[in-house]
Amino acid sequence: MFLLAITLFTIGSIICCASHGIVSMLVGRSIQGIGGGGILSVNLIILSDIIPLRQRAQYQGYLQLCFAFGSNIAPVIGGLIVQKTTWRWLFYINLPFCAISLATVPFTIRYTRPKITTKEQLLSIDWPGIMLSIASTTLFLVGISWGGTEYPWSSATTLCPLLIGLAGVLLTVIYETKYASVPFLRMSIFQNRSAIAAYACTVLMAFSVYATAYYLVLWLLAVKEMSAVMAGVCELPLGLTIVPISGATGAAITRVGKYQWAIWLGWVLSTLGMGVMVQLHPDTSTVAYVFMFICAGIGLGLLFNSLSAAVQAISPTKDVAYASSMFAFMRSLGLCLGVSIGGTIFQNFLQRRLEHYGLSPEIAKQAQVYIEALRSEPASPEKTLAKQIINWAFQMLLATLCGISGLGLVISAAIGRYSLDKELDSQHVIA
């Protein structure tokens, strides 16, 4: 499955590289997304299969370091690509890494194959449940992203995908519980309130991380009027704080054998960090906002590995692979919700502020286009007012994220203590 995921990601990247129209681009991105999602899930599953639970947090820290490093340099490299060369390099850049992975994985991970054919393995996959889950989640996200921006919350255009998506999620749970012969969604991993709380915190953590990272760049572009490259560079203090803190947290959890302290401390510092960043304004100095980014990064960094360790410690040994996969899914769901709902929150507050000053609320629907046009305008009282309006909407988004972090702290109180000293039962070994 790992090789299949890498292959799909490679094929999707190649299609995007060669794309000359929207249809081929969408096809390529879809295939790339399926492969990328598989890579994120399967590497956690393999890691949970070859590393004892007590040491797993440390190795997951290394994995998170790689993931976070890539996420942090991406805005800088992306900005350079946009400014200096063709957009196709956004996809060309993936190919050397794909080639290295395809060449090395078969020789570094040995696997005891079950005595069934590939066809039987494919038939055993819960395709109906997976398709129903994907369709439901997509419809829900579409409804959320449209609400209050493209269409009113009360309109049928917003409510239909939202309600159908929620109904689809409910149907997925019913199907997986009662009808699926080999369910992809193991309800046993949601066996108690600790498990439910840990997964809920994972969604909220990813929501906070990606909404913050995505819209901080927008603030730097619009309010500070930085170039795309400089915005990526100035956001680095957030990500470069998350990276070492995440790795150090994994090592500390391995050493002390406990994870609750990191979860609780992470949410406390994340809440404080978001609260401090609400004070951002057009005249905030570089030293001040770098300090704010670091405060938030410390809190969010503490959560990455501690929540992963909690999910696996709470899960029954036989379901650890499913728990790891669900952790990856919840993290990805939080990413999608953070970007889409974060955009909805920002645009709704932007509309409200525009109306307050007697300006057209339609501007909020094309916020990025408006910001790009604003950046090219000479200094004037009108431009200053526009930057203040955008800054206020961004402050309201950060206030919302502060509340979400506070909610995460409350929910995390339900996460109990479970032993990290569990026996390892594996079909994989490192060569």
Structure commentary:
It is a single chain. The protein has helices at 2-17, 22-50, 53-84, 89-92, 95-108, 118-123, 127-146, 156-178, 193-222, 228-256, 260-277, 286-314, 320-356, 367-375, 381-412; strands at 109-111, 428-430. With 431 residues, the chain is mainly α. It folds into two domains: 51-93 and 193-430, Growth Hormone, Chain: A, CATH 1.20.1250.20; 126-183. Helix 1 packs antiparallel against helix 2, helix 9 (193-222) runs antiparallel to helix 15 and helix 11 runs antiparallel to helix 12. The longest helix is centred in the last third of the chain and has 37 residues, at 320-356. It is globular and about 75 Å long.
In short:
This protein is an all-alpha fold. It has 15 helices and two strands.
CATH superfamily of the largest domain: MFS general substrate transporter like domains
Calculate Rg over CA atoms. Answer: 22 Å
β-sheet strand percentage: under 5%
**Would you tell me the overall average pLDDT?**
83
How many independent structural domains?
Answer: 2
Report the top-level CATH class of the largest domain. Answer: Mainly Alpha
Which residue ranges are poorly predicted, with pLDDT under 50 across at least 5 consecutive positions?
Answer: none
How helical, in percent, are the residues? Answer: over 70%
Distance between the termini: 18 Å
Structural class: mainly alpha
Beta-strand segment tally? 2
- Per CATH, the architecture of the largest domain is Up-down Bundle
Order of helices and strands: HHHHHEHHHHHHHHHHE
Described by strand count, sense and barrel closure, the largest sheet is: 2 strands, antiparallel
